[in-house]
Amino acid sequence: MTNGTQWRSWLDNDNWFNDLPTSLQDSLLVGMRQRRFTPGKLVFEHGEPSCGLYALLAGSIRFNGIKQQRLDLPPAKTRMPYWFGEVSLFDALPRLHDVFAEDQIIVLHLPQAILTRILEDNPHHWRYFARLLGRKLGLEVPPNDQVTLLPTDERVAYRLLLLTEGYGEIDRSTRSVSINDVLSERGLGLTPEVVDRVVGYFAERGIVHRDGDFISVLDVERLRKAARHRLTGG
Fold this sequence. Notes:
It contains ten helices and eleven strands. By secondary structure, the chain is of the alpha+beta class.
């Protein structure tokens, strides 16, 4: 049995993978490499450039983020494969978390260069990765070039969701992001003063908490409601 055939059998029960065109499935399987990590080993590091797409096949991982918040991915609640890493296609940022192996893990890794080449050759495949991310955010993901067309409040809410919910099925503890990440180059097309005003509006309503340069999300559902916009029909 070739690696591609074996990996396809592991991914057979995954709804996202099964919905992909056969050509994209084949491209992913050809480009992926199996990697194993022992407990405590880094999968990728905070501040590291985008390094591609991962599918967790066995074991569990731990996320440590800004201000060393601990975000756990309980294996009992996680359906395998668990895809992660695609958020970098949409946020234009280095990795925001350290990702560690909690125990012995097996992942399939599609390096960033291969993923980029697949999308450059087939731009229409972007929408499948948008669907993958959208499941984690709880709303449809607009094309990157349309984010700046959203109403101001919805734009900031979407950006906060992207930064805080982009890893999906992790522990729902409060998490923080830097205001500088909210304002990143691909982000919003808004001035810092406007973002401060919107964040203050959300803080007054108990959706977020502002502590200096850090924003903690307190109510994900209300933030998600604020981000449902006309472009996605949410």
